[in-house]
Amino acid sequence: MIDEKFDAIVIGAGMAGNAAAYTMASRGLKVLQLERGEYPGSKNVQGGILYADMLEKIIPNFREEAPLERHLVEQRFWMMTDRSHTALQYRSDDFNEEKPNRYTIIRSQFDRWFSREAQSKGAIVISETTVTELVSDAYGKVIGVLTDRRGGTIFADVVVIAEGVNGLLGTRAGLREAPKAEHVALAVKEMHFLPRETIESRFNLVGDEGVVIEAAGTISKGMTGMGFVYTNKESVSVGLGCLVSDFAGASETPYGLLEAFKSHPSIKPLLEGSEVKEYAAHLIPEGGYKAIPELVGDGWVVVGDAAQLNNAIHREGSNLAMTSGRLAAEAIFQVKSRREPMTKQNLSLYKKYLEESFVMKDLKKYKDMPELLHTQAKNYFLAYPALLSNAMENYLRVDGTPKIEKEKASVRAFVKERKWTGLFGDAVRLARAWR
Amino acid sequence: MAATRVEEKLYQNRYLVDAGRPHIKINAHTKPSDNLLAMTKLCPAGCYAENSAGQVEITADGCLECGTCRILCESSGDIVWNYPRGGYGVLFKFG
Fold it and tell me: What's the complex ipTM?
């Protein structure tokens, strides 16, 4: 089908793949990008927060062109029981800056734009084409790919594997293992459409300002998981995700949990009267540093979700994906410009770049968090939210009980549930994993 | 709360179904494994169901291609998972 040989083939047109394709093409490399969806973005799902800095490093003036929804001026963290939420809320007019730091986006629209940008730099993008196999030479070096279109191998010096969390190619080629059930979360999401004035009045916004709600607590029924509500221009993304290993032993369905979350007394009024236009599901890599596979080999690099590069604690995924795609591309460009072969050793420059970046530093910092949250799920997601809610109600309800007795009752409840040693242990464990 | 009908959710989505070529297949079994049985609840598109003989069957038309069943059931040999052919399957307008 394609006779010419490419400098690089990029598999997938998500955040990581587009960042890699754009960066390589803009440095003059001959890039082919293959996408199995109808168009770039049509298979991609994300809650939808974009961190400006990581895209700015790739496309400095993206704000003028990219399809952005709202810039975020407020973040709410909600600790939920079935009838209450206790909030930590941060809002600042400083976020109304000339170059805002965070935006909400709609992935299939954003990815389509990002891909067009890569094409404008010279990348060749072919959609509706599923790569079925990585092709290696007799020495095991990856030299190209096979697709489900007619024709033989398409050859390239290096293949950038940006196939996402559920990547089949890398695992089938034995380059890495499939993710384990305790290392991925299943998230489901709905798009709720509302008039933009309604969104602005309900969420206390002016113009293109946006709000994010991240919610944890009894909504995940004792599983490690979180819910979210993100404001877009004329829609609200609402979703919930839990670890697959927790789900596997539970009697809950993901869509049942989402319905319960939507009907929570704190969430329901925010969605009232909306029209739902899409229901999506996606896996999120949650294994952190310890789940990162081998990142380079002879003739290949792996980037983004396929490499488990996701910071679950800060809910950052797409910016790690974009950064890893860019750094892989820069490493490939370096090797190419030295006219050296794309061997594992030469390509390990990408690993070095990643180690020096926030990507590996952040993931290393939280390397113990996934395990902690997983093993302590019942405490962190059921016991503490309930205790906190009781303490808040105790504090706020005025009923003639002397304050000292109310305080003692709140403390007693914590001690009864977890004992002093448990409370101390939980605090130490959390602090240690955080450091 | 009444049981949630996942079919109503899928009805909002766009699909291009590759008729007669399902991308996920369940291997023949007499009694489903725990993980395969778990998929009857866990599949976010409700693609998996238990039949009257106690075996698990799949109708992959509404599949959201998340890969959860692959994570749980591929290594044990319960299922065979492939991507749909290029262009087929779920088409997210928003994603």
Answer: 0.96
The reply to whether residue A253 touches residue B6, judged by beta carbons under 8 angstroms, is yes
CA distance B83 to chain A (A): 7
Quick one: pLDDT at residue A231? 98
Lowest mean pLDDT among A85-89, A291-295, A372-376, B43-47: A372-376
**B89 — alpha (psi -120 to 50), left (phi > 0) or beta?**
left
Put simply, the answer to whether B81 touches A168 (Cβ < 8 Å) is yes
CB pairs under 8 A between A and B: 144
Burial class for A182, CB neighbours closer than 10 Å (0-12, 13-18, 19+): buried
Q: Where residue A133 falls among pLDDT bands split at 50, 70, 90?
A: very high
Question: pLDDT category, B1, cuts 50, 70, 90?
Answer: very low
| Strand bridging mode A71-80 / A209-217 | parallel
What are A136-153's pLDDT values in tens digits? 999 999 999 999 999 889
Helices and strands, number each (H, E), in chain A: 15, 17
**Same domain, yes or no, for A255 and A313?**
no
Which pTM value belongs to this model? 0.95
| pLDDT 10s digits, A3-17 | 889 999 999 999 999
Comparing A50-64, A89-103, A305-319, the range with the smallest average pLDDT is A305-319
Burial of A277 (0-12, 13-18, 19+ CB in 10 A): middle
Residues A184, A241: Cα–Cα separation, whole Å? 10
Look up the CATH architecture of domain B22-91.
2-Layer Sandwich (3.30)
Which whole-number Å values give the CA distances from A95 to A66, A72, A101, A231, A241, in the listed order?
19, 7, 7, 15, 28
Nearest to A255 among B44, B72, B90 (CB): B44
**Containing structural domain, residue A417:** 370-434
Q: Is the separation of the CB atoms in A216 and A80 below 8 Å?
A: yes
Which residues, 6+ apart, have CB-to-CB distance to A8 below 8 Å?
A: A20, A24, A29, A30, A31, A32, A156, A157, A158, A159, A160, A329, A332
**Count of structural domains within chain A:** 3
Give the integer Cα–Cα distance in Å for A60 and A160.
23
The shortest C-alpha distance from B20 to chain A (Å) reads: 17
Report phi then psi at A7, rounded to 5.
-65, -40
Output the domain CATH number for residue A46: 3.50.50.60
Strand partners, A311: A316
